[in-house]
Amino acid sequence: METKEQLLEELESIKRWENDQKGLWIWDKLARLPFAFLDRMTPSFIQKRIGALLDEIGYYIQSGGKYLTQQRGTLKKLERNAGMPVHAIEDVTSIPLRAMDETALSIQKTHASAATVQGATTGVGGFLTLAVDIPATLAISLKTLQEIAVSYGYDPNEREERIFIIKCLQFTSSDVVGKKAILQELSDYTNRSNNKQIISHLQGWREVVLGYREQYGFKKLFRLVPIVGIVFGAISNRSMIEDIADAGMMLYRKRRILERMISLDAKNESENRL
Per its UniProt record, what InterPro entries does this chain match (predicted)? Predict the structure, then answer.
């Protein structure tokens, strides 16, 4: 297990990442410009499919539904990377942070590759296959974040963790102000009494849907040209999943580090009393 000094160093690297989130990439800024125009030329069935994401995300928060993922595969990866038995999520809390990171990175790579293939495939058919791409991308996003949650010892079967996962999605699609607000909300997630306040902010999942609308706004533009649509579909889907995985890894990693620091402080205090 890591020392407190090592955990503080890891926490510093996460703080640097958080500071890097203060600005939007130029691509993200450009993505917002043509959307008002593109929105008017979108077929109604696409608009309805995007709107249905609200219901699907709400259903996921409440029950997990069809989006809940199997944990066994992730636990096996953790077991290999840690070199020790990992039979349940409770066992994950005692493995080194390095093994958690390696597992999360492999999950990112696997799902980014799957999203690339999916984006290229659905890029062939223009608007018609775009309707298929919308729920498929949401499914990959949620699966990626759930497996990353397990990698750091958190159970997506718990409603509180599904809320955290939606906050990770919201973070990825938010602007600078939104990112700052979410980081503030999640900064004390280890304090369970504070989670009721976060639950009360769940209207924020609408921002996730708006983020999807902007993402698909650009996809609509490029899918007017079939070959370009294939290439852009692959690149944009891969980039989207990589960004989501990055956010999930950093935010879950921060929670695990903070909880380990609290545990170390409690252990040191107990030893000093003796």
Answer: EcsC (IPR024787)
Q: Which domain holds residue 255?
A: 53-263
Residues 55 and 208 sit within 8 Å (Cβ to Cβ): no
pLDDT digits (tens, 9 = 90+) for 46-97: 666 666 776 777 788 888 888 888 899 999 999 999 999 999 999 999 999 9
Q: CA 19, CA 22: separation in Å to the nearest integer?
A: 6
Domains in the chain, number: 1
| C-alpha to C-alpha distance for 11 and 187, rounded to whole angstroms | 12
Closest C-alpha to 257, from 21, 17, 73: 17
Residue entry with tokens 């709400």 = 58
* Nearest of 61, 46, 11, 26 to residue 170 by alpha carbon: 61
Long-range pairs for 94-100 at CB < 8 Å and ≥24 separation?
94/1, 96/1, 96/2, 97/2, 97/7, 97/10, 97/253, 97/256, 97/257, 97/260, 100/151, 100/152, 100/153, 100/253, 100/256
Determine the number of helices (DSSP H) and then strands (DSSP E) in the chain.
13, 0
In a domain, 30, yes or no: no
Q: What is the helix (H) or strand (E) element at residue 10, kind and residue range? A: helix 4-20
**Which of helix, strand or coil describes residue 71?**
coil
> Would 103 be classed as within a structural domain?
yes
Q: Answer whether residue 163 is part of any domain.
A: yes
Token pair for 205: 């999942």
User: Has this prediction a pTM greater than 0.90?
Assistant: no
